[in-house]
Specification:
single chain; 671 residues; seven-stranded mixed sheet; six-stranded parallel sheet; 20 strands; 46% helix; elongated
Length: 671
């Protein structure tokens, strides 16, 4: 009873619990005290009444993926091949994590006590360090039972007499084949980095593996980078800075130099996340984490082969005892298709016979015919839609041509009715008259408001008592209306007065809006609609504001006159501002009139040339002179069915560097 309460909790090879909290020098003493004080279990000889039992000693914890897979495969084969029931007992020694002779002595003492009265029919041992302990236990407890071993050392019995009744398999880790595969996949490799842990077994294995690699390293002239026996933090730091022409081979990582235990699969995840170069492995349990591949050991296949050998031995076969260790022959060159794509390694470099893992078909390979059908259907739909669009455009073009023909016929009738006695200079006089009418309209409202407020203030002052608050409010309205009327007069005087040109920064949008306010009443009288499309955040222009306003005024008046014969409701004048390219701003004035004949386009800016019977032909000529003096240009187009389009292009100014206002061009005096 004392053994069951204390011994199992202190000396269970599982790495959890108190295994690492008991000092090694006390383990042997505690085991012997338990063994001496514990009574022999009743009926110990009858623990296995029927069937056979097998005891398996493993070097590592059963929680590790490799050990779990190996034991599960072994148990499955034993149960399937044995006639009667069979019991498989598994003891994990944790030899990779626990070290020292005290620990080994404690294990030896514990298993002598635990299995003294429990005789297995066969003893199985995995790995060289475990085989030595198994030989000692068999010699002291069951010298006549067979021992089946699975050793990573093919020359296990080379330097010592081979014990009797021993059969075994050689678990080969073919690092050379893995390196050859790496060199085939990465032909530019010039360096080889090798990763391994710090346990005594790992270090012993490393010496043997490196000896196998030396001929190939010398033949290919590869530089060897030793990443073994390093603390975990230093290993990850080194992995982040490996040279570009490096291939990485990994073995195991059970402990670091401080003796800290690790789970190899978890270390593999951390290492692959940090490593900047492609890595290769020897164990199939880590495939799928990001390794490219290698000569992989399948622990499931190894467990199956060991189970078959154990079955034959339990069946009485003895020829196995006379042969040297046989290779398990379970190594299989495997590559991860996803890792190949990640590192941009062409599949053509993979040698024939290599197995592809995680080779999932692409979307095209999986749904090729469905995609082809969908693309064909989409192409047919696109052709049908394209045909419908073309047909619709043809119909719309025919309708537009019909409307244009009707409009031209009507314009021709109106043109025939004009009298021949219109004077050529009426254009300039009409423009001044239009400005005067706009001025009168703008002044009528504030003057009427001033008169009304003044009369109200007089009545309020004559009242008894006088209502001074309302008088003050009326006087405030008078002042506001007076300022409004003064602004109208100021704008008109600014357009008409003559003074030296000045170069100042102006907003083209503000200039357009001021001219539009002056012409608002005339637009209404002509039955025309003005549509402003002004670009926000427009760069400033530098020049004389009065002259630039004269350009805008001429363009708008020309547009209104061009629409004189268009029926009311269709007279639309569109003004747009934009910044089409860096360093330029553009003003576009487009009317809905009859447009300009192509043969007359080169002549419209010439002095005294006019497309109107009553025009003097000076407005556009003056406008071009002003625009060219400001470093710009004035163009005219006549899109079919869209009236005339006049484009004024001016250089813009960077406001951050516009402190220098010195003239760059000689501007003409205001006309």
């Amino acid at each position: 009873m004392v053994m069951s309460l204390l011994g199992l909790s202190w000396f269970n090879p599982n790495p959890s619990g108190m295994t690492r909290r008991v000092k090694p020098k006390w383990r042997a003493i505690v085991v012997w005290v338990i063994f001496l004080l514990s009574p022999l279990p009743a009926g110990a000889q009858a623990t296995r009444l029927t069937g056979k039992s097998v005891l398996l000693l493993t070097p590592e914890d059963m929680a590790l993926p490799a050990m779990s897979m190996f034991v599960a495969s072994l148990r499955s084969v034993l149960w399937a091949a044995q006639d009667g029931p069979i019991t498989l007992d598994v003891e994990s020694l944790d030899l990779g994590w626990a070290r020292g002779p005290a620990y080994t002595e404690a294990l030896h003492t514990w298993y002598l006590a635990k299995y003294r009265e429990r005789r297995p029919d066969a003893l199985l041992a995995f790995r060289t360090d475990t085989i030595q302990l198994a030989l000692e236990l068999r010699r002291e407890l069951w010298p006549d039972i067979p021992l089946i071993v699975l050793s990573e050392d093919g020359q296990l019995w080379e330097h010592q007499p081979r014990p009797e009744r021993v059969a075994g398999l050689w678990l080969r880790y073919d690092l050379r084949a893995t390196l050859e595969l790496a060199l085939r996949l990465l032909p530019d490799t010039r360096r080889l980095a090798f990763v391994n842990g710090s346990s005594p077994w790992e270090q012993a294995q490393q010496a043997q593996l490196v000896r196998e690699l030396q001929p190939l390293l010398a033949q290919r002239g590869l530089e060897f980078i030793d990443l073994t026996n390093l603390p975990l933090d230093e290993l990850l730091a080194r992995a982040r800075t490996l040279p570009e022409d490096t291939a990485v081979l990994t073995y195991t990582f059970m402990t670091d130099p401080s003796g800290r235990p690790f789970v190899g699969r978890e270390i593999a995840r951390m290492f692959l996340a940090a490593c900047n170069q492609p890595s290769f492995a020897l164990h199939d349990t880590v495939m799928g984490l990001g390794f490219i591949g290698g000569s992989l050991v399948s622990y499931e296949a190894v467990g199956e082969q060991l189970g078959l050998l154990t079955t034959r031995v339990l069946g009485g076969a003895r020829e196995e005892f006379l042969e040297p260790l046989k290779s398990t022959s379970d190594e299989l060159l495997t590559v991860d298709a996803r890792a190949l794509r990640r590192w941009d390694i062409p599949r053509e470099r993979v040698p024939a016979g290599v197995r592809f893992a995680f080779d999932e078909p692409t979307l095209w390979e999986r749904y090729r015919w469905w995609l082809l059908g969908a693309l064909t259907l989409s192409a047919l739909q696109a052709l049908v839609v394209g045909g419908l669009v073309v047909e619709r455009r043809r119909r719309m073009r025919a309708q537009a041509e019909l409307v244009e023909r009707q409009r031209l016929e009507k314009l021709a009738e109106l043109e025939a009715r004009r009298t021949l006695d219109q004077l050529a200079h009426m254009g300039r006089v009409a423009a001044l008259g239009e400005l005067a009418a706009s001025l009168a309209h703008e002044l009528n409202q504030p003057l009427a408001a001033i008169l009304s407020n003044a009369q109200a203030a007089r009545r309020l002052l004559n009242a008894t008592p006088a209502e001074l608050d309302e008088v003050r409010e009326a006087l405030g309205d008078i002042i506001s209306d007076d300022k409004r009327a003064g602004e109208v007069i100021h704008r008109m005087r600014a357009l008409l007065k003559r003074e030296e040109p000045r170069r100042e920064l102006h907003s083209l949008n503000d200039l357009v809006c001021e001219v539009a306010r002056l012409l608002a009443n005339d637009m209404h009288l002509r039955g025309a609609t003005l549509q402003l499309s002004l670009a926000p955040l427009l760069p400033a222009v530098q020049g004389d504001g009065i002259q630039l306003q004269q350009v805008v005024l001429n363009l708008l008046i020309n547009g209104m006159e061009a629409m004189a014969q268009v029926p009311e409701g269709q007279r639309q004048l569109t003004v747009r501002t934009s910044s089409t390219s860096p360093g330029q701003v553009e003003l576009c004035v487009q009317d809905s009139g009859g447009g300009i004949e192509p043969s007359r386009l080169p002549l419209i800016f010439e002095p005294f040339y006019s497309t109107k019977d009553h025009g003097l032909g000076m407005g556009l000529s003056i406008s071009r002179s002003i625009v060219e003096a400001h470093g710009g240009r004035l163009e005219a187009k006549s899109p079919p069915g869209q009236g005339a389009l006049l484009r004024c292009i001016l250089p813009s100014v960077d406001t951050e560097s516009s402190h220098d206002t010195s003239p760059r061009h000689h501007l003409p005096r205001g006309r």
